[in-house]
Design brief:
single chain, mainly alpha, 2 domains, two-stranded antiparallel sheet, elongated
Length: 198
């Protein structure tokens, strides 16, 4: 008696017994490969299911604290000043509304201003625009940004501008950018010197 789970039947319309034997021999020779492939796929599928069911390893406590502090700092930065989209910058500066991001993006590439990115949108600091120069970037900002170039990202720069600074006697850099740019430049250089020397 044949075990029905082990029988594979083919009907060959054209061919002789020799052809049928060739098909049978081929099937017998590739059967182990098929079985191995199916077993590997089954094992991989099981591994994927296990991965989905096992919870992610929680991040270390110090990383959670750091992330929370960073989020709080970013929130404070956004609440401490006016932040404008490229369209809003274009509007106050009197640029074409057809492609409002062109000029602010150009300023950013020229390192004349910076922007923080949130939810895929760039926000430019209002304190960096000079109302006496048709809302172009303050000339004093570019050398400060050059001082930070490659060592602070945009959010770190924004946090620095919005934070109390001991070099400035407890004042906040953004509040002095227009009135005392040389002092802000010196504070930026001091910041970088402290970063480099630990």
């Amino acid at each position: 008696m044949l075990d029905s789970e082990q029988v594979v039947a083919f009907m060959v319309e054209h061919g002789d017994a020799k052809f049928a034997q060739l098909v049978a021999d081929t099937m017998v020779s590739i059967a182990p490969l098929i079985v191995t492939t199916l077993a590997r796929r089954e094992k991989d599928a099981l591994e994927q299911i296990v991965e989905l069911l096992v919870p992610q390893v929680p991040p270390p406590q110090h990383l959670l604290i750091e992330a929370r502090m960073n989020a709080e700092a970013r929130k404070a930065v956004l609440e401490s000043a006016d932040w404008l989209t490229a369209a809003e910058v274009a509007e106050v500066a009197g640029f074409s509304a057809r492609n409002p991001s062109t000029q602010p993006n150009k300023w950013k590439k020229e390192v004349r201003i910076f922007a923080v990115r949130r939810n895929g949108v760039d926000y430019y600091p209002g304190y960096a625009l000079d109302p006496d120069a048709a809302y172009r970037p303050l000339k004093a900002l570019a050398p400060i940004l050059e001082t930070f170039a490659g060592r602070k990202d945009e959010w770190s720069i924004a946090i620095w501008f919005a934070s109390v600074n001991s070099f400035l006697g407890g004042r906040i850099p953004k509040d002095l950018l227009a009135s005392d740019p040389d002092q802000i430049q010196a504070a930026a250089e001091d910041e970088m010197a402290r970063v480099l020397h630990g």
